[in-house]
Amino acid sequence: xxxxxxxxxxxxxxxxxxxxxxxxxxxxxxxxxxxxxxxxxxxxxxxxxxxxxxxxxxxxxxxxxxxxxxxxxxxxxxxxxxxxxxxxxxxxxxxxxxxxxxxxxxxxxxxxxxxxxxxxxxxxxxxxxxxxxxxxxxxxxxxxxxxxxxxxxxxxxxxxxxxxxxxxxxxxxxxxxxxxxxxxxxxxxxxxxxxxxxxxxxxxxxxxxxxxxxxxxxxxxxxxxxxxxxxxxxxxxxxxxxxxxxxxxxxxxxxxxxxxxxxxxxxxxxxxxxxxxxxxxxxxxxxxxxxxxxxxxxxxxxxxxxxxxxxxxxxxxxxxxxxxxxxxxxxxxxxxxxxxxxxxxxxxxxxxxx
Amino acid sequence: xxxxxxxxxxxxxxxxxxxxxxxxxxxxxxxxxxxxxxxxxxxxxxxxxxxxxxxxxxxxxxxxxxxxxxxxxxxxxxxxxxxxxxxxxxxxxxxxxxxxxxxxxxxxxxxxxxxxxxxxxxxxxxxxxxxxxxxxxxxxxxxxxxxxxxxxxxxxxxxxxxxxxxxxxxxxxxxxxxxxxxxxxxx
Lengths: 354, 187
Known about the structure:
- The structure holds two protein chains of two kinds.
- Chain A is built from five helices and 18 strands.
- Chain A is of the alpha+beta class.
- The relative contact order of chain B is 0.25.
């Protein structure tokens, strides 16, 4: 009588395959878990406060003269259902990198120094509001027809939370948020109103985010420029490398800005021709026709600073992107299945020869 | 006959007077009714989005980590159509509150999403979102509403992205950076 142990042995073969498949899927699911566990950002915090000028809904415009003091008031309002503490600060007005006001409260050196607030900390009950008077003293001998300052307000709780995040232990990268509101103050003094924009430089700059064409600009004159459309083309020989069209926001006089235009891809060593025009509203256009050189040193710097591969963020997860882990898991599962099949085949006894 | 005519005349006159009284209230109803009320100006407010904290292993070369930027909104209830802008500034990353011992050349680049009108806001033109901005202590405008645009509440959905470049020679530790969202009326 011939025994066929193999028959019994191979009878559950489909089940083994299913188990292997399930194991592979489970392994893949486990590997994919960190990716799916990547948390969505928390919900936005509701606005807690508002800052406005007394009797006005927009910016403050004050007419005065050198040596004089002008007075006004702002209103801060708690729009939340909890008590809040607001901090108020005077600010200089500089240009943001792509236009509009950047309210600078640290180391004030311009018209922000002329502003005095009657209170810098305001405690407000839910839905309460408070008027905060301020004064602006314009030093004698001040020149220019327009000067710009600001008053900013922020919720002290935001800054406390940000300070707490700074002291956090561990290995995570935390990004805190502070909501701030600002009120621009235009101080109009006697004198002619003029607008001017000067192009100081055109450069290709390298930073970790990649290369960028940077236009060094300096608004001048005695009044702000409302906007300035920019249109330019970068070429090498007959080939167009980059076309750009955008609009700069409000430009404040006597505050330079470096307007960065992201480069498409990576520049290579050599000369590029930048041609275009900036048309500030109410001022003479600025024509650009300049050659810029991307030096070998810049090529090296770009190679050194720019990351080779972009990764995906996961909370407390290793640096490899999740799809790599998934692929590895599937691969491991298949390998396991293959090994199992080989092992089964190796254990199979040859059928007796009749 | 004359007597009858006089009687008819009196009846007609009486009916006319009664009709006049009946018509008078109708005439009053047909006149314009003034609906008076005051719409007082609201405020310009904004929120700031939550940004997911992340961990990553240092690799010895610069690497970019993309982390999600949450939803946020701006609400212009001033009723002035005066326009506004939103800027963002970022502090240089610190480790445990101090400047990192090693690591140069990190950066944060923010890509904003397009604003959509909140339910119940009929305004047609919202604030214009800027292209991706490299963040620094100098503010960058991320949304701009010119005069006559951007009224009411506008939502920026969760789809924005913050690309953080981690220097290859960074020191390990708990990093933090603060993003300040500032809303302001146009000067």
